[in-house]
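thread: overnight batch results

M.L. [08:02]
morning all. the overnight job finished for the chain we discussed friday. pasting input first so we're all looking at the same thing
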Amino acid sequence: MILNADRRVADSLPRTWVDYAPESMRPFLRLARYDRPIGFWLLATPCWLGVLLAGAGEGLGWTDLQLALLFTAGAVAMRGAGCTWNDIIDRDLDARVARTADRPLAAGTVSVRAAVLFLLAQCLAGFMVLVSLPPLAAGIALGALVLVAAYPFMKRITWWPQAWLGLTFNWGALVGYAAAAGEIGAAAILLYAACVLWTLGYDTIYARQDMEDDATVGVRSAARLFGGRYENWLWGFYLGAAVLAGAAAVVKQATPWFVIPFALFAYHLFNQIRRIRGAGPETCLAAFRSNREAGLLLAAAFAVAALVI
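M.L. [08:03]
and the structure it wrote out:
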């Protein structure tokens, strides 16, 4: 049984370039979420932030640009792999939720065997990026595999799957910093913690789309846990994210010019809370997707800190 089938299915609308790809490729492109690129942005951004923060107060060079491009390729490969793994594990649950019922594995347009082979191909692409990183960064990157593998099960055993996603999705902040700086310092730890809180906020907003269906099928989420108190929690998450990100820049002795784009980043976060107040699933989805711009604003702030010396 598909729940709430009469409401708009956010995962299938609107049409994207994937709808115009060769028909045989479309299910696999959807399986890797190429029709929803926000995930690529949110996975790549922490990597970029780590590289930029490492250069704060010191300047950026061609090596940093090369690392940023490398992390972009890695984010595309590993986000697709993560989504494929998640859908393999969640295919029965997805079939019971209106928003996810048309995902390829849930709908039966891709077999489990084909999905596993596709997963291995994407992991191979990610491995090629991994071996191109400096040894310290590559070693740290390997630590994310346990987090990625365990993530699909978190919604079954804890009310805080958003926290696990934060730990997983932002591991690239540590990898990016280590790749650029050759070490892990206090600034990198502060940035990682900031990004985890940021993810706790935006993924709680995302989870508010599915609260009714999740309650019926028994899926846990922070959005269900918070209930009507979600705004207070979001304020806490986003305020913590802004404070810790700012502290990371201060530790790196960022120039005062850093404050201008950073203030825009903080405003963007807090404005999301206002936008979703009493809003429906479509507004929550739009607010969630706007975190691409939030991440780019923070990247701009760190870039200013690196370029203005």
